[in-house]
């Protein structure tokens, strides 16, 4: 570590003082105003955060609280321990990020520098791209950001003993190493931290500068302490720039931001979120529904992160430098997000999604493992089921490269798929089925048959573990399951729904056992393995039961018996989704936007029950009308007669032509048109049987 503590550098921190913030024009009523960053930030009710960020941005400045949460911030906490600059919204274990934690202080001469500060809860404000709070020491904190630079504006009271601490070792999952030096008024260096669930490491570079003269610089363990005096209501702007390439690149990113004022960046951040939200316009008089819809879409689009610099350069998971002419995305949790979020991006943001797919292709070329490597360039988690996502994009006509480009890499991945436990068998068989479809598309018929045969070997295990359910079938982690019960994993054979219906005893018996599953409250909305199951009635003679069930899950109190790792002695009885800080049920992580995306899909009346095909399950939309921008003409989803009691589908038309199927084709509606639902208060038991 380079240590420069002499006052030679102190004058270098001087720069032209930031002008007062220019008053912003009144915001027009736009979709981004419905974003409420406080939703799902309390305790263990989602593990989201109030970071001031831009869509898919690297930097996410946000308060870290005591007690700390997976994303740093807990709405119910009484103390802030600093404002860190990285995080991954809504992930499990202990979270990841929390780097470069900054704490402003104001002390008496004889006092020690605090490790945390209380704050005025009523002063807290958060909106898309902005956060502010008044600390009890008299400092007002405001945060905003662009993609690679965090802007911290601190307004100090008059003091002879004010300053910042910058903790170079702060990290949620674990700190490995750091370096720094100070030159030309810039603090710059390198950070290496532990990734999610202590799987692998990530290394990035930083550059920090603030616009005030310093009287003293010291170091206390991993913390740099900058002391100075302030006038009353003096604004001090601190910029923190990141790069995954090298230290000089971080410095260049910092310098590129120097002509931007805090207010300009704040306005640009809000505009970027509004542009993203404006892809979908909803019609309803219920502002709470709008708030939930746009906030969940906001949570879904926090990650992955665009990590390449302006010149296109980035580092890969193998630690080597690369260059891309398009946005390069990093920060994956595909095991969760392949179920809902990535298909949602293919629907709402196909042009951005093509860059994500190209980034996944690059990951394969770098030797993609299932979890994070030791040389990741930034925060990331896991990548299982990418084969299914590649197939999904190919079937939708949006894969931006030939399947053959990574066919050999996908085959190599298939050799290492796990089959140690019942959930492994079902999950890995899904990947093998997807690879068989890819092989078939490439004309590799012998290999297609090989992978398909291997995929359908799941039936041996299924008959042994899932055909006959008993008292042992409702045990969390039973039979070595990762998370969940045999009842919850039982249904995860989306590529062969007909097959498990046959093994159970036919479509009617399949429906009867679905009834038992839900009537006995065996479903776990709080985790991923069975989140598609409410839509499986669309593959029976009673799709109206999906309509009723989704209405219950979205709008009514339900009993919820399961945490992440255990079944509760008493259920949590409440609405699952609320526009409050405890926006999800207890222990229901957002899982990198997976559950947010489940909500968005379900409110639109669509669901990708089977990623890897173009099948979308239909249910009752929650709004009067959706208008979705596409690359062609708009897609309108209209729910005629929508009320709290009219929750059943009487009739569906596509561009005026009646359809009597509870499954619709992605490729049919994604190019735009009018999907119209006629609703009623009693089930139409004849609609939707012809799939």
TrEMBL record:
<comment type="subunit">
    <text>Monomer.</text>
</comment>
<dbReference type="InterPro" id="IPR014718">
    <property type="entry name" value="GH-type_carb-bd"/>
</dbReference>
<keyword id="KW-0378">Hydrolase</keyword>
<feature type="domain" description="Glycosyl hydrolase family 92 N-terminal">
    <location>
        <begin position="34"/>
        <end position="243"/>
    </location>
</feature>
<dbReference type="GO" id="GO:0016787">
    <property type="term" value="F:hydrolase activity"/>
</dbReference>
<protein>
    <submittedName>
        <fullName>Glycoside hydrolase family 92 protein</fullName>
    </submittedName>
</protein>
<dbReference type="InterPro" id="IPR050883">
    <property type="entry name" value="PNGase"/>
</dbReference>
<dbReference type="InterPro" id="IPR012939">
    <property type="entry name" value="Glyco_hydro_92"/>
</dbReference>
<dbReference type="Pfam" id="PF17678">
    <property type="entry name" value="Glyco_hydro_92N"/>
</dbReference>
<dbReference type="Pfam" id="PF07971">
    <property type="entry name" value="Glyco_hydro_92"/>
</dbReference>
<dbReference type="InterPro" id="IPR041371">
    <property type="entry name" value="GH92_N"/>
</dbReference>
<feature type="domain" description="Glycosyl hydrolase family 92">
    <location>
        <begin position="425"/>
        <end position="680"/>
    </location>
</feature>
<keyword id="KW-0106">Calcium</keyword>
<dbReference type="InterPro" id="IPR008928">
    <property type="entry name" value="6-hairpin_glycosidase_sf"/>
</dbReference>
<feature type="domain" description="Glycosyl hydrolase family 92">
    <location>
        <begin position="250"/>
        <end position="418"/>
    </location>
</feature>
């Amino acid at each position: 570590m380079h240590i420069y503590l002499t006052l030679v550098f102190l004058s270098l921190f001087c720069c032209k003082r930031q002008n007062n913030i220019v008053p912003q024009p009144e915001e027009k009523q736009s979709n981004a105003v419905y974003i409420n960053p406080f939703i799902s930030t309390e305790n263990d009710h989602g593990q989201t955060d109030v970071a001031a960020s831009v869509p898919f941005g690297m930097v996410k400045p946000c308060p870290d609280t005591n007690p700390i949460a997976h994303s740093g911030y807990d709405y119910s906490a009484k103390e802030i321990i600093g404002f860190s600059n990285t995080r991954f919204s809504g992930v499990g274990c202990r979270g990841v990020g929390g780097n470069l934690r900054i704490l402003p202080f104001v002390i008496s001469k004889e006092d020690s520098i605090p490790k945390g500060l209380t704050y005025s809860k009523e002063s807290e404000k958060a909106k898309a791209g902005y956060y502010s709070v008044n600390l009890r020491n008299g400092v007002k904190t405001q945060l905003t950001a662009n993609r690679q630079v965090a802007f911290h504006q601190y307004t100090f009271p008059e003091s002879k003993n004010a300053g910042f601490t910058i903790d170079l070792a702060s990290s949620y999952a674990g700190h490995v190493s750091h370096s720094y030096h100070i030159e030309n008024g810039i603090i710059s260096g390198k950070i290496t931290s532990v990734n999610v669930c202590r799987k692998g490491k990530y290394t990035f570079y930083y550059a920090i500068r603030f616009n005030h003269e310093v009287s003293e610089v010291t170091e206390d363990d991993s913390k740099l302490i900058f002391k100075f005096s302030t006038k009353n209501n003096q604004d001090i702007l601190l910029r923190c720039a990141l790069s995954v390439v090298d230290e000089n690149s971080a410095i260049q990113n910092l310098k590129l931001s120097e002509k931007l004022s805090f207010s300009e960046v704040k306005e640009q951040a809000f505009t970027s979120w509004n542009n993203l939200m404006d892809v979908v316009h909803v019609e309803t008089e219920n502002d709470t529904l709008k708030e939930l819809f746009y906030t969940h879409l906001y949570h879904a689009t926090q990650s992955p992160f665009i990590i390449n610099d302006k010149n296109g350069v980035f580092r890969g998971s193998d630690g080597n430098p690369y260059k891309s002419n398009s946005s390069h995305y990093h920060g994956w949790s595909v095991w969760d997000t392949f179920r809902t979020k990535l298909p949602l991006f293919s629907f709402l943001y196909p042009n951005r999604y093509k860059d994500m797919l190209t980034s996944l292709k690059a990951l394969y070329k770098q030797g993609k493992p299932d979890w994070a490597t030791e040389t990741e360039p930034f925060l990331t988690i896991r990548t299982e089921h990418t084969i299914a996502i590649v197939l999904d994009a190919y079937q939708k006509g949006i894969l931006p490269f030939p399947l053959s480009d990574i066919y050999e890499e996908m085959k190599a991945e298939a050799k290492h798929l796990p089959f140690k436990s019942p959930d492994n068998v079902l999950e890995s068989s899904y990947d093998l089925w997807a690879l068989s479809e890819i092989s078939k598309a490439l004309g590799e018929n012998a290999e297609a048959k090989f992978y398909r045969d291997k995929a359908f070997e799941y039936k041996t295990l299924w008959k042994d573990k899932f055909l006959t359910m008993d008292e042992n079938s409702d045990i969390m982690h039973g039979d070595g399951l990762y998370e969940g019960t045999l009842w919850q994993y039982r249904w995860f054979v989306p590529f062969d729904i007909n097959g498990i219906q046959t093994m159970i005893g036919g479509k009617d018996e399949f429906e009867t056992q679905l009834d038992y599953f839900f009537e006995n409250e065996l479903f776990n909305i709080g985790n991923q393995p069975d989140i598609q199951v409410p839509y499986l009635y669309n593959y029976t003679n009673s799709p109206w039961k999906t309509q009723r069930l989704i209405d219950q899950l979205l709008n009514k109190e339900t009993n919820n018996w399961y945490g992440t790792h255990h079944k509760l002695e008493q259920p949590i009885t409440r609405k699952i989704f609320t526009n409050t800080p405890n926006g999800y049920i207890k222990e229901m992580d957002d899982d990198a936007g997976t559950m947010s995306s489940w909500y968005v899909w379900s409110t639109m009346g669509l669901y990708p029950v089977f990623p890897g095909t173009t099948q979308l399950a239909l249910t009752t939309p929650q709004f009067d009308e959706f208008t979705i921008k596409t690359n062609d003409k708009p897609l309108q989803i209209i729910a005629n007669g929508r009320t709290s009691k009219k929750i059943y589908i009487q009739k569906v038309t596509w561009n005026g032509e009646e359809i009597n199927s509870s499954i619709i084709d992605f490729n049919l509606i994604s190019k735009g048109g009018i999907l119209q639902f006629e609703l009623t208060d009693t089930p139409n038991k004849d609609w939707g049987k012809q799939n």
